[in-house]
Amino acid sequence: MPTVSQRTAELGTENAFVVLAEVNALARQGKDIISFCIGQPDFHTPVNIQDAAVKAIRDGRHGYTPSAGINELREAAAQYMGSMRGLKIAADDVVIGGGAKPFIAYTILTTTDAGKGDEVIYPNPGFPIYESQILACGAVPVPLALRESRNFAFDPAELETRITPRTKLLILNSPHNPTGGILTKRDLEDIAAVMRKHPDIWIYADEIYSRLCYEGEFSSIASLPGMYERTIISDGASKTWAMTGWRIGFASNPILAPQFIRWVTNTDSCASHISQWAAVEAINGPQTDAEAMRKSFLSRRDLIVGLLNKVPGVTCKTPGGAFYAWPNITAACQMIGAKDSEEFRKRLLNEAGVAVLADIHFGSRVAGEGQHIRFSYVASNQAIEAGVARMAQFITANARRAA
Q1: Domain encompassing residue 365
Q2: How far apart are CA 218 and CA 207, in angstroms?
Q3: CB-CB contact of 252 with 81 (8 Å)
Q4: How many structural domains comprise the chain?
Q5: Does the bond joining 175 to the residue before it have cis omega, within 30 degrees of 0?
Q6: Residue 140 belongs to what H/E stretch?
Q7: Does 74 lie in the same domain as 158?
Q8: Residue 242 and residue 247: Cα distance in Å, rounded?
Q9: What is the spatial distance between Cα 400 and Cα 62, in angstroms, rounded to a whole number?
Q10: Rounded to whole angstroms, how far apart are CA atoms 117 and 167?
Q11: What's this model's pTM, rounded to 2 decimal places?
């Protein structure tokens, strides 16, 4: 019987979708589940963007586009990314992809060689596809710990200790999934100071949540002196305009753009023609809906953090961006006799009907950092209030039994 490759057998996944399957299975059994597991805006794509897609269909824009994307979207994305970062980005340096996620793999494939021991440094906890793609592409993953004491940024001194002659790429993510942490301009200046000592290392700046910053202005390492040419800027339409299913991402680098175009040709051929025209309208059209969504997420952030900090055994830092809360449940685990966050989240789902993700879904647990779970607060205020109330009741009831 034919077998699959070791690469495929060991390929990682995005556990939000695994937990979502558990949630759906319980829902089919009639269980009442409040879910906080998927990082997907709960808004409809704005109507003007929908209308642009319908017009594209009616106008016969059904065929292939250039692998790099239509000129109109490359120009719009170049202006959009450049204006946010204080950079002049050329349209020729922008590549459109089927979402932002493919650029993770394209970047690793372009900057490392399989089997040669090339290393990629990435944040831990972090978006699980980073580690998965590093391994799948034949490179060596080097996790860099994020610290609660630093508002889930990493210590630049720790970064320096992770760099070796084999380091080819550093992955940054701000605002951050899963913690909601942000890298401030000061953080980025400290990181840039380290990276200037190592000019041969590329930087992948995953900035998909760039429009969802709540504490201060968004900052990009690409904006700092000497950093733009070596930084791959990755952004997209999914989070800002509630377009997750439209699958439109855009990346920019003046040196690597031609290589990314070849990767798109070898994989997807091109992003959806229809979705590209919708994204042109998303960028160039009115931003009223995008700003309204951001304000709603900010309000929900304040609501969920305030509620979580009243739950027995739980403390929660206020996240600076994205739409995730990352509460510390170390004391809560001890109170109910759960050995770790994964046991806690399984029991919370099955006993209380609340779906969250555990810290181990985002990498190996960082020593000394305790136990954490992730809430994606893309849910109504009523769902947030009910879900956190169920969690509080779950802890209280089980603490009594444990006692």
Answers
A1: 6-31+289-402
A2: 9
A3: yes
A4: 2
A5: yes
A6: strand 140-145
A7: yes
A8: 11
A9: 62
A10: 9
A11: 0.96
